[in-house]
Design a protein that fits this description.
Length: 167
């Protein structure tokens, strides 16, 4: 098999197939069995555009890592949301507002960008400032560093560093 054919096959397996299936499932969840005449051309256009615009910038991408990250993110969002609601509704309002600096453990790249963006979506935390491999985090409770470390591991699972550099 030629190198071009292997690259095309790898791209199909690592990009077009999982993203296409994800988009089709998303359409099915929203519209059911209706409108596939509209959805299929749209999915093809989105696949081509995403490959052209995004794929070169993503580098290494792990669909299994994305699944693990998604499950972790959803579970932590529910648990964190319940915790924030309890703290806000409790008569004593046991909020422990504080800022904490976090030093990254992995190399700079897409995984770090995902961590910074995702941390702000997690209930009770906010990425405030990023400078010199350090992130300033605002938190309403507990040790934000431990939560950020765990989230960073999942983000590095989505975009693993396969260069051989220590992470």
């Amino acid at each position: 098999m030629s190198a071009d054919r292997k690259a095309t096959s790898g791209t199909f397996k690592s990009h077009f197939l999982p993203v296409g299936i994800l988009l089709a499932l998303f359409w099915y969840a929203l519209a059911g069995d209706q409108g596939w005449w509209f959805a299929l051309p749209g999915i093809v256009v989105v696949l081509l555009l995403s490959h052209w615009l995004i794929q070169p910038r993503l580098g290494n991408f792990s669909p299994l890592g994305l699944l693990r990250f998604s499950l972790y993110f959803l579970s932590r969002s529910v648990v964190g949301g319940l915790d924030v609601a309890w703290r806000a509704l409790h008569p004593a309002m046991p909020l422990q507002l504080h800022y904490q600096e976090y030093s990254f453990h992995g190399p700079d790249g897409t995984a770090r960008t995902l961590l910074i963006a995702t941390l702000s979506l997690m209930p009770g935390t906010l990425s405030v400032n990023y400078r010199d491999d350090r992130l300033l985090i605002h938190s309403i409770a507990g040790n934000a560093e431990q939560a950020a470390e765990e989230l960073e591991r999942y983000c590095r699972g989505v975009f693993p560093d396969r260069s051989g550099a220590p992470s």
